[in-house]
Description:
Blueprint: E1 5-11, E2 15-22, E3 27-35, E4 43-47, E5 56-59, H1 65-78, E6 88-95, E7 106-107, H2 110-118, H3 127-140, E8 146-150, H4 160-163, H5 169-174, H6 184-197, E9 206-212, E10 216-222, E11 225-229, H7 251-258, H8 264-273, H9 276-281, H10 286-294, H11 298-322, E12 327-331, H12 332-337, H13 339-346, H14 358-362, E13 369-370, E14 379-382, H15 387-402
Amino acid sequence: MSPTRVLVLNSGSSSLKYQLLDMRDSSRLAAGLVERIGEQTSRLKHTPLALGGDSREWTGPIADHDAALKAVAEELAQDGLGLDSPELAAIGHRVVHGGKRFTEPTVVDDAVLAEIERLIPVAPLHNPANLTGIRTALSLRPDLPQVAVFDTAFHTTMPEAAARYAIDVETADAHRVRRYGFHGTSHAYVSRATAKLLGRAPEEVNVIVLHLGNGASASAVRGGRCVDTSMGLTPLEGLVMGTRSGDADPAVIFHLARVGGMSIDEIDTLLNKKSGLIGLCGDNDMREIRRRIDEGDERAKLAFDIYIHRLKKYIGAYYAVLGRVDAIAFTAGVGENAAPVREAAVAGLETLGLAVDGELNAVRSDEPRLISPGDARVKVAVVPTDEELEIATQTYALVENTN
């Protein structure tokens, strides 16, 4: 029997997340996280899910991603799940930016590595770390298919009218300035899972997906294909996020530079790390913000209101883009767990066919579920995202088709 296991790697600038899945039944065999790579206090947490054992955790210096992946390999080997296993079919890598070229999962070769590297200027925080993870994995298993799955790929179906900024075309093309979108593996997974929840094929369903975590994005999905999304050239555009501003007049940058005397790097830090919810009220944890609101904190309430206002604007905009909406799906940390956010986001939109049932909305569950009244014209769903499973599924399908 051909191998059926896929190791999914998500390499961050100082972290490495991983899951090992068996694609016969999409079961998880192991999962873990290495964080603070490059520090003396690096931490590795490994959970042998297949064995039903307790998590193992240790701290100590892990110099780089090469050392991190070798440590992960040792943990997996301890459970009989090592990287040298003949049951391992491939390694799937999350890559944040694939530009216009990569529209689907791709087997990594020298040309693919070179293109990912060429895209570093439009993803300077993410693509270098993704490249490091791929190269490290290649050094350990050069004989194994390594597959890059791109965050931007799902959004490459956007029409030019949605993907283009209204700036000089020659300048935009020369510097690859366009709207790429992110969180694509999540939007792909959730849009299909929502169709399944409705008992329909993805090709028959129009869905607005709201991926609400510390980073947040919305997408309009028509018949399984993305036709618009809120993030743009970078993940800064769109919704109000934990630390990112989302949409802002570009002239704010000029104003802060000319009048505020701020450098480009200072403005970059402000908009990406000191804005959004944390800039508005000092907290980027929605649970803490709701607690403060319950205690009468006006600053927290204003932050929440701005967050919801922007969210409603995108729901309305994507309703108009799609023309017909069958469902709205909430996902990711805030979307899956913050009932007040879901309730507030659709409040007052009854004329659009949107409503939530209070009792259904209050239920906490790890399963996909509807929270709208039974007779609602537009279904409102909570669909837990599973980006690792999506990456593993795309990786395994590509390897099987190639074989």
